[in-house]
Amino acid sequence: MMSKASIGQSRNIVIGSLLLLCSAVIFYIYYEPTMSWRPCSETPLSKEDICTKACLHVPKVENQSQIITNCTSVQEKMSASQSPSLEKEDAANPHESETIVLIWKWPFGYQFELESCESDYGIKGCHLTADRNLFDKAHGIMFHLRDIGGEVQYLLTLSRSPRQKWVWMKMESPANSPQLNGADDLFNLTSNYRRDSDIWVPYGRIKEISDKDEPFKIPEKDKLVCWIVSNWNNNYRRVGYFNELSQHIKVETYGRHFGRYVNGEDYGPIVSSCKFYLSFENSIYKDYITEKLFSPMRLGTVPIVLGPSRENYEEFIPKDSFIHVDDFKTPQELAEHLKRVDQNQEMYEKYFAWRKDFAVQNTLGHEHACRICEHLKRHKNFKIFKNVNKWFWS
Ligand SMILES: *[C@@H]1O[C@H](CO)[C@@H](O)[C@H](O)[C@H]1NC(C)=O
Ligand SMILES: *[C@@H]1O[C@H](CO)[C@@H](O)[C@H](O)[C@H]1NC(C)=O
Ligand SMILES: *[C@@H]1O[C@H](CO)[C@@H](O)[C@H](O)[C@H]1NC(C)=O
């Protein structure tokens, strides 16, 4: 049983802590005038509520006496509900020494593991988060361009620490994405498949196998050539090529264009059951070699590529791991080659010789976030990237 004195004492401690918190808040508002204060209406001092997603949309509050009033009412609420652990939680930042990278939106809505920069890439001391409550604490913010089209005006109104770096991150080629206007002072760094971006991240990598990788076995096949395509455009080189190729060899076609939508679950089993897969890029740019190549490779099929030159591909993947459409004079010759290989298991297996030493790693956003973190740790210099549009689109 607690004595009266100790109850009184703990109550004093609670009230004392709350007063301390309040003064800290007021102090913060006073001495960090460049930061915008974004309180929530109900309980502005709790960790969860101090700045929820919605709060990021609350305009700057200039009136300090309002906040003080709210502080007092919260203080009363708190001492009524007695939550002495609050101050400890607020004060202790477990990520004090870590570099925080905020993922503004999941690229293409795809969520990835946040905790594995160290295990996947050996990059230590990163705290990746998608929690916008950490906006003010983040050292860098990753903006996937495609997902922020309508938000530029809003982003311009956010007040950010002069030390925070905003990263223009983009995965698609110039042909598939509109420019972002009014954003010339917004970003500090670029992260992209292009090797002249600040934080270069390709769509995938061929990496040495490690002990924990299972030995590779060619998956069972019941189809010869497959293609999944949604984005059909008669002007694309790939469409013309396909139309001709399919006159000489049967191509199993999937995707929205063919009325056979493939969901994420079916993608793996379908692709791995094909001997060859048409890894045809929708637009042709140097280094623009996408998941259309790396995913089928990972799944154990032989990619037939249409994109930049063979030479450019060979900078990323072993030269005997793929077929380039330019290896043949015509689609018909390619079709004949595929039929020959179909009849000759030894020839087919040669395409997988490299798998004794290597495996495929896809990236899709996660590696971007980890590399951004790595870059922020190493480079503390001031930098603004002007004319992003000119750099990327011309
Ligand atoms: C203070 O609290 C009141 C009522 O809870 C709310 O309407 C008001 O917007 C709050 N003011 C600030 C600055 O948070
Ligand atoms: C600030 O808020 C207080 C309390 O809500 C109010 O009395 C005062 O007039 C406000 N001041 C300004 C400048 O808006
Ligand atoms: C990043 O760019 C913004 C906006 O141009 C600038 O205010 C800020 O100081 C820059 N930060 C760094 C660390 O370079």
Quick description:
The chain has 394 residues and is α/β, with parallel strands linked by helices.
Structure overview:
With 394 residues, this protein is an alpha/beta fold. It folds into three domains: 7-31 and 43-85; 99-201 and 366-393, Rossmann fold; 207-362, Rossmann fold, CATH 3.40.50. It is 33% helix and 15% strand. It has helices spanning 4-31, 64-81, 86-91, 117-121, 152-157, 237-245, 264-272, 291-298, 310-314, 331-342, 345-350, 366-378, 388-393, and strands spanning 99-103, 126-129, 140-144, 165-169, 189-192, 199-200, 204-208, 223-228, 251-254, 274-280, 302-306, 323-324, 358-362. The protein is elongated, with a radius of gyration of 27 Å. The relative contact order is 0.12. Mean pLDDT is 81; it is low at 28-93. Residues 162-163, 165, 185, 188, 382-384 line the site of one 2-acetamido-2-deoxy-beta-D-glucopyranose.
Low-confidence stretches: 28-93
Report the C-alpha radius of gyration, rounded.
Answer: 27 Å
Which CATH top level class of the largest domain fits? Alpha Beta
| Distance separating the two termini | 76 Å
Chain-averaged pLDDT? 81
Number of helices: 13
- Per DSSP E runs of 2 or more residues, the count of β-strands stands at 13
* Share in helix: 25-40%
User: What is the structural class?
Assistant: alpha/beta
